[in-house]
Amino acid sequence: MEMIAEAQLPSVYYRRGTSKLYSSSRKSSKRNRRIMARLLHLCFLGYLLHALTECTISTSEFRLDGDYLIGGLFDVHHVNDSYPHNRPEAITCSSQPLILSSYQRFQLMRFAIEEINNSTSLLPNVSLGYEIFDHCSDMQNIPNILNLMSDDGRVQPWSDSYKNLSKLIAVVGTYTSTETRTVAPFFMMDRVPMISYGAASSIFSRKKDFPSFLRTLHPNQDVIKMVVKILQHFGWRWVSFLYINDDYGSDGHNLFLKEIKDTDICLAYSKGLDDNTDYHKVLKRIDLFGVNVIIVFAAEWTAERLIRSAIQHNINNKVWIAGDGWSLHKKLPKEKGIEKIGTVLGVAERIVPVPGFRDFLKSSKTKIWYGDVGQTSCNQNCSCSSVTAEDVIAADPSFSFPVYAAVYAIAHALHNVLQCGAGRCNRSITAHPQMVFKELQSSNFTLLNKTINFNETGDPMFGSYSVVFWNHSGIEVAGSCHFQPFNLSINDTKIKWRPNGTMPTSFCTPECEEGHKKKQEGAHKCCFNCTICQGETYINITGGMEMIAEAQLPSVYYRRGTSKLYSSSRKSSKRNRRIMARLLHLCFLGYLLHALTECAISSSEFRLDGDYLIGGLFDVHHVNDSYPHNRPEAITCSR
Q: What does the H/E/C string look like for 67-97?
């Protein structure tokens, strides 16, 4: 990439003291201006890339040479929304708060590649390397992406050949949906495989926009369906939905609204959360609406602020349903006062222990974690000298197996591209990202007793979830959920409801008593008044909204000349029709009984008194099939 001097742009230039683009030719077309704008944009990117190439990277924790490289993007540190920046700049992630669970995932990628390099069956005589960056910001880590795409510090965006490409064959990451949506287009452009272990937004299933994207965690759609089934299992109909105000949270909120549309569940209150949210005000509004069940669909750092605010402001006796982003949080279940806020349930990816990872952490601690002090830029530095192997092992294990599975999926795909077998790979083949992606689409291998494969949208066809419960000592599994086919099971006896052991209820209005009808109040179907039914009327369904007079049976009737039951209402349900058929049957029997009691029976030929009676039924007369009858009636046989 070359810098273009301002003096070499005679037809399109910037005027001194302005930021607008001008043309010296009146005939300059819009197309020319767009082309020049793109050139200037590339110059800016080149400037950033040049700055990165001057950065010395000495630590081996973030990079490893190999025949082929896998890129890694992990938010080892986290930048909050209020981070000040008034100009384009590459952020220094190591100055931000450390996310221990993300650091655990980062180390798991390193472990997986070391394990593959030591294998004699997977990619024999081929070594994998990695280039990992601390992707701590949703929007300010673009230089990291350019570094992954570059070859010797240069990017050739218009090159159609495979010459001068970097050794990068795929990327593992990123964690959040917003991060992924920001950087994915850079890789989608050249069909570089990108396997995310944490981006759950449903937009990534759109292959038109994200053609080479795959993921090893279940999308929001599956998780939201699981949450709704939990609500229905416990009969909670009046709920609130709090979500992180980003792509992940907004997508979850929209999916939740769609999922409850045809159910008895009502959303009383919802709110997007960010760094500027007044959590106390949000919690007060939930109390004002009388909501006892709160769904929190957010990242761990957002959930921490919310739960600590609930403890601080004495929000008591609620049911909190945690999304998979924070349900396995290690510190919050032991937070002082956590028992006062009520019961915490959650949905979580089922944890898969990775053999050998603990030993890897302990053995690599001294030679790496203390060797990176002094590194100040390039986002390939972690100020982790105080972090022990035990700290990393004890961190939230969410999304760890998806990282492990992503690395192995890439390795198996490369193994197939290089036609590996019999202890060797065909090194005369040069693997390109597009070739690796093609093999990834048809992945089918076993990893820790799980079959790893993807569907046509790049979503995983493996993995199950757990229903978890926060008890006094930590987190306990209380149920499970499988997605293909969908099946949720919960062991209610494992859940210890706070504060008194009784499962809380959550409704806007209790169900009406027998003999009452509902009258909806306001916009929510869950909120109504109960009105007593008038005499000689009934409710046609449980919890019905209208009373039907006993004398009026217009909705179910017999058509003249037929014996079939018909309904005057197209919306009449099968249940209603069965109920009305039984009522008509009882009416028919009553009519017959009434007719018989009015019939005078005087002949001794058909009756004889005695202490006990024996009944007799004989067809003394016979009615043929064509006997006309248009209504229920008692036939006169003697005719």
A: CEEEEEEECCECCCCCCCCCCCCCCCHHHCC
Give domain limits for the chain. Answer: 6-53, 63-81+89-217+353-396+399-452, 220-351+471-494, 558-639
Would you give the DSSP letter of residue 350?
P
pTM of the model: 0.75
User: Diameter of the chain by CA atoms?
Assistant: 129
What tens digit of pLDDT does each residue of 93-141 get? 888 889 999 999 999 999 999 999 999 999 999 999 999 999 888 777 7
User: pLDDT tens digits for 495-545?
Assistant: 999 988 999 999 998 888 887 888 887 788 899 888 888 766 655 554 455
Q: How many CB atoms lie within 10 A of CB 509?
A: 17
Q: Give yes or no for a contact between 113 and 403, defined as CB atoms under 8 angstroms apart.
A: no
Kindly report whether the peptide bond that precedes residue 460 is cis, defined as omega within 30 degrees of 0.
no
Burial class (CB in 10 A: 0-12, 13-18, 19+), 568: exposed
Residues 136/137/143/147 CA torsion (nearest 10 deg): 40
* CATH, domain range 220-351+471-494: 3.40.50.2300
41: left (phi over 0), alpha (psi -120 to 50) or beta: alpha
Beta bridge partners of 71: 131, 171
152 near 165, Cβ under 8 Å? no
Give the integer Cα–Cα distance in Å for 309 and 251: 25
Q: How far apart (Å, rounded) are the C-alpha atoms in residues 288 and 168?
A: 54
Residues contacting residue 304 through CB under 8 Å, at least 6 positions apart: 326, 329, 332
> Are 410 and 436 within 8 A, CB to CB?
yes
pLDDT single digits (tens) 141-200:
787 888 888 776 666 665 554 554 678 999 998 999 999 999 999 999 889 999 999 999
Q: Residue 73 carries which side chain, given as an amino acid letter? A: L
The SS3 call for residue 42 is helix
Task: Read off the tokens for 439.
Answer: 């093999």
Q: Where are the alpha helices (DSSP H) in 399-509?
A: 400-417, 433-441
Q: Does domain 63-81+89-217+353-396+399-452 have CATH number 3.40.50.2300?
A: yes
The secondary element (H helix, E strand) that includes residue 508 is none
